[in-house]
Write a structure and sequence with these properties.
Largest sheet: 6 strands, parallel
Shape: globular
Distance between the termini: 14 Å
Strand content: 5-15%
Structural class: alpha/beta
Helix content: 40-55%
Strand order of the largest sheet: 3-2-1-4-5-6
Length: 214
Amino acid sequence: GVFYPGLRNDLKELINTNLEEKNFDVFKFLNIPKKSKYILCLSTIEPRKNLKTSLKVFEETVKRSKSNDLYLVLTGAKGWDKLDEYLNNLGPEIKKKIRITGYVEDKYIYKLYKSSICFLYPSFYEGFGLPPLEAMACGVPVITSNRGSLPEIFSDTAKIFDPYDVVEMSKMIIYWCSNSNSRLNEITKLKEFSERFTWKRSCKQIIEFIKKTN
């Protein structure tokens, strides 16, 4: 059988009870203007996460939208990808719109998700993919890839693309930026989907499977 993990209990508690860190101002933390929008990428910085494409997607999005108030936020522990090399290949106008936070404490992650315009995750391979699920639980539209387990789990809720399809991912981001009503309508669907993934449900499925095989 296939058993999916559940959402982290601490994240669910923050979402369901609004126990937010009142002193944590996302826009001040990121050093970006209050009325601006940002795309969030949250992962360890390593090759399989396809951060090179995320940077290309952001560059394409800025060029297509001609937006001055759109930023890209890269959050996660430093791994072993060539991030500095990728950044150096970008023009100065794009580089100044990118924020690299490094590791962020769990208690602040909810706010980073919640305040983003969308979550970009064009990973080459995932065994499951918890960050897209966490983003959905926070009511954030997800753009991800058709590789690994991602389409199997998220095909009905996320926007799925080839991990090299820079143009189509860029168009999707522009759509979310310019269609606030459509984005709001998406939120309920995303939250309902994420609620299916609980550790209680996963444990129940495992116990039932063991009983059947004994």
